[in-house]
Amino acid sequence: MSASMRPEPTVSERGPVRRDVPELSRRRRFLVLAICCASIVVVVMDISIVNVALPAMRGDLHASVSGLQWTVDAYTLVLAGFLVLAGSTADRVGRRRIFQVGLATFGLGSLLCSLAPSIGWLIAARALQAVGGTMLNPVAMAIVATTFPDRAERARAIGVFGAMSGLSLGLGPILGGALVDGFGWRSIFWVNVPIVAAAIVCVALFVPESRAARARRFDPVGQALVIVVLGSVVYAIIESGRLGWTSPVILGLLAVSVLGVLGILGYEPRRVDPLLELRLFRSVPFSSAIATALFALCGFGAFLFVTAPYLQDVRGMSALAAGLCLLPVGVLIVVLSPLTGRVVGGRGPRLPLVVSGAALALGGGASIWLGPATPLPAVLAIYLLFGVALGTVNPPITNSAVSGMPASMAGVAASLASTGRQTGTTLGVAISGTIVGPAVGRGGTAFTSAEHGVWWLLLGLGVGVLVLGLVSTGRWALDTAARAAALFEGVDTGAAAGCRVEAR
Q: Which helix (H) or strand (E) holds 356?
């Protein structure tokens, strides 16, 4: 299971939708919705399956812990780095076209994963999969929004889209465990190929083309800086266990990441359409939403990464049994996410954020007492806390990110929130793998003792989510959101362009 999951759908709309999209019948609209849901199913379920299969991959490919970290992080890192670019590109050149390219790329990456002769080739193929994945989630959401012009019907369609991602999260570990036990870990990638092939044909036959009336411009410098920062930080964390934090390579990477951040701060404000709209961070609810996404998904990603070896290596479970142990977590996410959405709509995001932070902190604290012989019912009860934490955090993240923002910036804000989720997932896997790395393969109390560092981290992250939930929902925070929104008045008409100098 992956921490980016349950991922909140990302709206890639950059402006009013062009009305050259043909009016579709009700049956055709729901067929388009089904096709888009199929895309999110393969993306989400693929990550869920991979987490369950990591122990089998380690044995078959003789992979190191850092190799396993990169197997997960190559995917989430590419998603985090290119998510916003994929949405804006689809708005510009056509959503159906980019969607088809994404499906084909994801399918090719899946096929190459199944044929990988070594961990290095597997990591490269996972990165290729992620390139396709960046074109599926945000673009599918934009297609759904365009296909359902009626607001009420569109809201229901978006709810179905989000529920399918949650369902994939719940079913992924079971399907992955069954495939790994029955056919080997390579089979978890084979299953994607026929699904993707069928989806490509259906998109060509049934999904109309659409574009945004005003698409954001490509920002190559900003894109490069984001990749440099994320890649340097994640590489430094993962390889620090092997090279040491005082290694010239690690110190150099950290220095590069600092320079990249300074470059973003200096360059992006000069763009008319920056990749990272820094003025959004003047809104306390928006800034808190990004921080909450980082904290919550970092915690959940760390939990999932250390859970598979604990269940399979320490407790001796099969991959299928381990998947069944994670099923209640996925079920809670599926059940709680829509309920939380209604609470956020009626009472605001404070209560769900407090519940999520408390559950994550309690889950981390209680996990400190997990050992090789801890009764399984107690283990599952603790795992339920992590399901509560993720099931109640995603809707308020999106709500807080777009709170008070004009329609012209809602898509950008939601995209950045989704990027925060993927970045948090990536960091969670990197940090937890570094903490438990020396104990992986030793099993028993050696591994569970090493896990203590991960559980203390999760406790702290949970407290952070709780505090952010309280700070970001007060009157002062809401006032900052209103002031930030005022900065974007006139964006759709181009008035804002006169206030800024285009970087050359």
A: helix 350-367
CA triple 145-148-151, angle to 5 deg:
85
Q: What is the pTM of this model?
A: 0.81
Coil/strand/helix, residue 403:
coil
SS3 194: helix
How far from 164 is each of 171, 189, 200, CA to CA, in Å?
10, 20, 19
Name which of 419, 418, 414 is nearest 403 in CA terms.
Answer: 414
Say how far apart CA 366 and CA 148 lie, in whole Å. Answer: 45
Looking at the fold, whether 256 and 129 belong to one and the same domain comes out as no
Helices (H), 148-247: 151-183, 187-190, 192-206, 220-243
Cα separation values, 344 from 306, 338, 392, Å: 31, 10, 10
Four-CA torsion 379, 64, 115, 37, nearest 10 degrees: 40
Report DSSP state, residue 497.
Answer: G
The answer to whether residues 408 and 18 touch, using CB atoms and an 8 Å cutoff, is no
> If DSSP codes are grouped into helix, strand and coil, which group holds residue 212?
strand
Nearest CA among 333, 86, 39, 301 for reference residue 196: 39
3-state secondary structure of 17: strand
Together in a domain, 339 and 407: yes
If asked whether residues 207 and 163 sit together in one domain, one would say yes
How distant, in Å, are the alpha carbons of 396, 397, 421, 464 from that of 477? 15, 15, 22, 17
Tokens, residue 81: 């780095």
- Is the same domain home to 111 and 252? no
Q: Contact at 8 Å (CB) between 241 and 66?
A: yes
**Same structural domain for residues 209 and 69?**
yes
Q: What's the CA gap between 487 and 401, in Å, rounded? A: 16
Task: Please give the residue range of the domain that contains residue 231.
Answer: 220-270
Q: What's at 480, amino acid-wise? A: T
Q: Are residues 346 and 474 located together in one domain of the fold?
A: yes
Between CA 55 and CA 68 the distance in angstroms is 9
CA distance 297 to 163: 18
Cα 253 to chain centroid, rounded:
24
In a domain, 358, yes or no: yes
Q: What is the mean pLDDT of each run of 10 residues along the chain (504 residues)?
A: 44 41 73 86 79 86 86 85 77 84 94 93 93 83 77 70 68 83 90 91 86 72 89 88 85 94 90 80 88 92 88 87 86 83 83 94 94 91 92 82 65 76 86 80 75 94 94 85 74 44 39
Same domain, 448 and 386: yes
State the total domains in the chain.
Answer: 2
* SS3 of residue 502 by DSSP: coil
